[in-house]
Amino acid sequence: MTSQTKIRVFAAAVLLTFSSLVVRAAAAERVKAHNIVFVHGAWADGSSWSEVIARLQAAGLHVTSVQNPLTSLADAAAATKRVLDQQDGPTVLVGHSWSGTLISETGGDPKVSALVYVAARAPDAGEDFVALSAKFPTTPVRAGVVAHDGFTTITEDAFLKYFANGVAHDKAEVLFAVQQPTAASLFGDRTTVAAWHSKPTWYAVSKQDMTIAPELERFLAARMHATTIEVDAGHLSLVSHPKEIADLILAAAGQPR
Q: CA–CA distance from 180 to each of 69, 89, 154, 197 (Å)?
């Protein structure tokens, strides 16, 4: 290969790399959103977002927290779609924990401008997430999960120590009191799509998570090419570190912080 040919090959490679970066930047371009829709995860209810909601409302955003029925992915998707249908423009869809599955399933809605995953699952379409999780460290909260008539809850000891680690004790007690029973079958439900392939995506990793392994969260965030932050928090970073989570959502919404 002559020197001139080498120069041409190098120039072509540089141009290809630059073009790829431009395409990625365009794909990640933020649409300014005024609406935020939250979906909560297993063993929780919509109030778990309350401190983040207050911050976003103070910033002038329109916020709705879906009451996820936690009975099946289909039921949860229907509840989320009803709320998305009521939004009046671009909307950031935010999911915590199991509801990362839910926003992956419903985030293709044309009103959804961005997805935010908070210590959340993020399955690919049709993926066996239970099998994927088995490749990462087992977290201690699992030992505290108990089943009753096809639904699961977390024992008080496990909830306070592992699910709500890092949350002030009085707040953790309240969250335990309002935890919603979750269908045991819910965790095996598989998505039909993965909206994160086509929507700009953000992820908040919880470095002290004892419910979803932080190593798994980092893997998911990297696989999605998500804009990622790491929070020195347990699984409920939305409760213990609401400012960091609110700031991440504001960034996804293209709003000033």
A: 9, 31, 10, 30
